[in-house]
Structures are given as structure tokens and as C-alpha cells.
Amino acid sequence: MFKLDRTVGKGQTHEEASANQAAYWKTKTVDERLAVVMYLNSIAYNFDINNPPRLDRTVFRTRKHET
Known about the structure:
This protein has helices at residues 14-26, 30-44. By secondary structure, the chain is mainly alpha-helical. The longest helix has 15 residues, at 30-44. The termini are far apart.
């Protein structure tokens, strides 16, 4: 799905890189950004992107807030 192109790159300061990244991601739609987030989560937590793990509901509880 995504592949890192190691042939593209240049030396730049931290400030330049930050500004370039912000400008790049602002050109992407919300759906494109969420797809990248899901991909990065699948890499970080080692799960298949097409079959993400289900929420373990035994760990979480809901309760009513008293007002």
C-alpha cells in the first residue's frame, strides 16, 4: 500500500522540515490522513491492516455519570 522512496530527500533544518510536513499534510483529505494513521498503527502494533484487532470489552466498563 505505502512504500518509502529513499531516493527523495534533501538536507534541511528542523524548522524547514516541520513547515514542509505541515504544508504537505494540509493538502491531504481527512480520509487520506486517517488511512496513513491506520497503516502506521498496524505497523507499530503488528496487526494486519485488513483485519484489525477487536476491542477487548472485558477491560473497559461504562457507568452513568451523576449530575
